[in-house]
Amino acid sequence: MKEGLFFLFLFNFIPISAQYCCTEIGKVLHYTTIDKKQEKTLKDSALVRDVIHENERIVVDLRWYGDSYSPTQIIDGTNRETFIYRKKTGITEFIALDAEVENTEAKLDYLSKYPQKDRSRAEKEYDEYSKYMHAEGRISIPIKENAGMDEELPPCKYTQKIGPMRMKASLEGKYKGKERVHTPAGDFDCIKIYTESKAKFMLFSEKEYSMSWYAKGVGIVKEERYNKRGKLQESMTLEAIRKQGNN
Fold it and tell me: Of the chain's two ends, which shows fewer C-beta atoms within 10 Å, N or C?
């Protein structure tokens, strides 16, 4: 009986340990970013705003706050990122842009401005509005525990339409093995991922090259961005992990 309970415990514990994101509501991740190009040092914070436990997955809502390093002065953040831990595969998916979520939230916001009795009219008006402003696709990175060296990420694309204008983004990359990373917040065993991302808006286009390190129970602990010649332009490092409101 004890042996059976042990294996049941082990079976339940292993997937949880593979979450490459923080799943504790109210935890604040503090980062320092050094911008070599503009010769600036920035302090940013990411708050675990919400965690939803479902049968097959855990969804983490992360909100970023620019230049707000003080743990006692966290204000509402609009820069949103999502982590989804899928229990069956053990993969943590980092989602930077998601058209399905954005379209749903835009529709709910639009309909909320109408009384319930005008719901039918509001739905029709939103259908017309969505032809003017709409998004498609998703930019995401699956963080795999046992990915092979130089195994390629699934390429992904995202498009946002605003009238005649289009904003397009795409991402591809490779897994670069595992590496132990030293930060002011501690030492972490990380999965290392290289990405190449492109963004295009009207006549302007930009390409970014990044190396990111993700740790279990935390998420991103270090990130470096380079120009096309491989020169380091910006680096971000985890400085501390605190509970919201605690010094």
Answer: N
